[in-house]
């Protein structure tokens, strides 16, 4: 009996060997055999199995002669579909299976892949999982080619189009924009073999337009290889072409015309020693330098035009150039030396072996005593920040978070010139200021290795970085509160002393009143006075505040002791702090005993921490820390100003000395908990 049923159609295949789905309509054919339920009109209705005259079969649900509901259709060539039918059309969800092992599982509409689905091609070993539209990959999807190659991103009409990331078999990775199956727009390509990357504009699968290419570490310390070289400028059809700047890891640079990856045309080449050649380049050839003669095209260029204008010496520029060349070898050695040191402000892996970092210059300033109370590290940081802000890397002048900005050799020279200009301002000639800085500060310590670790407990750079990072938000908030409206973004040691005292983290020990106690003992003689003094000292060491001694003495003696406590240099503050210390001592024995167990930090130790953080461990002032007068101590506290990094280092050093028998991380956690509470 004839009825309207679905007919098989020949399976079509796309160009990429993926199978085409059924046509969106079903033609009338004559049924060979039908077995199953029927309607009152004798049409297939309910569950039934049909064998068509062309050999195809269908088994599943029917409605009024139409395949409708769940069913399985098998073509004569072995292709099988199992899933949803709607009025003789494949629509809904289901699974296509081909004899060669290809499989599609997902949504369909009008007989075509449409919606979310997964297609696996056995022969090619590829698998696409994502969105479809009318049988084509369209929308967001993941295509796994096998052997490590895969694409994740946007599709349009079966082609990569939009944003996506492609990982290649050799480990290369592209992440960016696509158009009609090709890399086009903005994107970044990381090349595994050369450990380099290109970031910029693309066209027709090639770098084209504005971009930047960087060669990272390739496991060699030879600075003349492409390690850490960087180019920024124009590209054409995958090659450097047009205007661009090439930065060499050695500190040299070229800025000018390029053609097919070579220097061609007008350009400026800055050598490692800061000398400059400007002129014509042909086929990438650099100008030759014979017998040390730099020729008419060479000159020394350091960007200090603002200083030259202020200097009273009209010949400063020429004189300074000669001085830089005079100390060129020593300054180059200085650059190489400090580019090798670890950076304690970031992870060790972030430090590079050939490029000097801004934070390494900070250590240079400390070790070579370029900073002192008259010219402090906060002033040097302002200079470093100003020079680094002209580079491609940006530096946060508030928190100095980007302390890994790379500094070229000529930029280090500029920083040293600017420091010399301010530190030795009494010298008239700018060139002589620079010579004084090099001869008095830099050269005497060239053969000495600086002390990089100030903590009593050896701690790795990773641990220091992790501790800082864990408390970053709290430290920034505390720093901002202390800075207030100060536009220089600095705090001084006096503020930190007040903070530590207020939080009970600084032991306040009154000075012994030996001279006034002696006259009261009219019968004891010298031996009695000496014995009493020894007892006083022993009691103070045991109880911190010498509470018992204060209670036994007459009221007038206690009043005389208060002003002699360590103060910060101001009479009103001294009286107030003396009262606060006395009030703390009266709060009860438990807090006194616990305070000594928890915290060992005294004012001399705290001042030493501030000094080390700001001037380095090689500049000690025990004469002030241990035995200085109240006036000297107060002046010293008010004189030290610090930026955010030294503020953090000061607290870290204080935590290290304040607590014992626990790890450094636990020490700093304890300190910050007390401050925040």
From TrEMBL:
Gene3D superfamilies membership: Histone H3 K4-specific methyltransferase SET7/9 N-terminal domain
Region called Disordered, residue ranges: 516-597
Compartments reported by the entry: Cell projection, Cilium, Flagellum; Cytoplasm, Cytoskeleton, Cilium axoneme
TM spans (from-to): none
Major subcellular site: other
Xref: InterPro entries: MORN
Pfam families: MORN
Bias kind Basic and acidic residues: ranges: 537-556, 586-597
UniProt name for this protein: Uncharacterized protein
GO cellular component, one term: motile cilium
